[in-house]
Task: structure prediction
Amino acid sequence: MTHSINYGRRQFLQYSAFGAAAAMFPELLLANPKSARSSPTPGFKPDVEIEFSAREVFVPILNNGSKTKVQKYFAKLLKGPENTVQSFEDNYLGPTLSFAKGQKVRIYFDNNLFEHSIMHWHGLHVPQKSDGHPMYSIEPGERFVYEYEVLNNAGTSFYHSHAHNLTGTQVYFGLAGLLKVTDEEEKKLGLPTGEYDLPLVIQDKQFNRNGQLQYVRGMHDRMMGFLGDTILVNGKPNAEFAVKSRAYRFRALNGSTSRIYKLGWDDGTPLTAIGTDVSLLEKPETKPYVMLAPGDRIDLWLDFSGRPVGSKLAMYSLPFSGTMPPMFERMQRMRGGGQGGRGMMGGMGMMSGGLGQGEKFPIAIFHVTEKVGDSPKLPVQLVRRQRLTEKDVDNADNPLPIAISERHMRPLVNGRPFSLDEVMEIEKVKVGSIKKIKIFHPHEEHEMASQTSGHDMEGMDHGGMGGRGGGMGMRDEMGGGMMGGMMMAMAHPIHLHGQQFQVLSRKEGHVDREDYETVRHGFVDSGLKDTVLVMPGEEVEIIKPFQDFKGLYLYHCHNLEHEDLGMMRNFYVH
Ligand code: C2O
Ligand code: CU
Ligand code: CU
Result:
């Protein structure tokens, strides 16, 4: 497969407004995305209908009487089973949605914020017009209508703002909520339900003295990712769950913008995972700990059977290293970590909070308060899935590249920054195909060229990487200064819209063995994923189907500061 890129056309697309893009993607109706989506389709008969709105409100988060200004999703169920929408009072989190596979869903989204916004159904496989692409961002007072059938199997996902350039900000200020999908297969398993099936939405925030949220303060926070020093679970600090002596399903979601969690019990008891990103595993997996990157979900089977009443178990984020540039991790250690760590570096505006990436801290306490006789048993087999293999793909020798690099303190994907509607030849995918994709860090420009040969990525030199040459890696003397190349030395949670993928292989990069050991056993790569943590220098191969729907589907870093910096591109499925 050899493509050549027509420079003229690419330039045209790159600078085009919606109207011009519509010429290229007529089926997307980009010419007027708003009027195209502001009213329901008469022929679509929804089983579930929900009216969403996003508003600024004050909610109590800290237990000190203060109220914090947040952005919050409110939802009203117009049609469908009563348990579809479960709202949280006194919380910034959006309601938990419960969908069933096969349901037809219509959602009205009213933007009552003071800025543009759009909702995205992370992990759901929906038509492009209902995926919440940032090009569909609507202005205050406007309405957007989503319509889709739930095609996903049972599992855990979430929805969140995907506002153009404001995704990180709006998610941080509250615009996210949990989304569960159930199906017949799952029901037969007898997994814990109702009060034994609980969310574990983990986020880090930073509050000022008045109890108000603080977000990024400068370029450093954007590049390295914003880290808050207060850990919230389900929207509250110091989480404690009163549990019975039986098994629970906890649906862990990392709803942070950039913090990575390494979930584990303080006493070394292993953790059992039964699901990953909107997907149950074939078999439960027991791990010493699990890594949870921004955007990731893990369904945990937490069994308190046999634990005496009064016992307490602490879930921690255990220490790890290697996900940040070595220099940054050294500074973090120098600072001593933990509380009040705004020492020298904090004073220099180098650190965004008192709690570094990879430091140890408690997430939640589980307090056994009641003894019960009986508990569901952990199934030996969960669901039967055909594992995707290289035989299923049509490009085994020529994987689609997702090359992570940076230039002048800006992250690049395949050598390019984000543009709403730009698509390169290598980003065009035939609908119905199953592709092998290679996520990697090109160390040198020529490597990028050779890694992607057969795809002819020459076009990239034209816009993104050419000219000055050597725009990537530690050699970037320009602009980046001491931060140049640091994004290359970070772990990135790479998320692809559309269908879930299978992780095929990981080839370690330049992370120290010792550092890699602190994360190695926490990847649940056996399940289907829509977000995968790629360690610095690591090469991760995945297999992903592009079925059913045509259009633009995003792929991006789910470190939301990186996403807003433009670490995002489109696949054009045609
Ligand atoms: Cu969770 Cu493109 O997003
Ligand atoms: Cu998504
Ligand atoms: Cu990133």
The pocket of copper (II) ion (ligand 3) is lined by residues 492, 557, 559, 562, 567 (CB under 6 Å). The longest helix spans residues 7-15. The chain has a mean pLDDT of 87. Residues 495 and 531 are 4 Å apart (CA to CA).
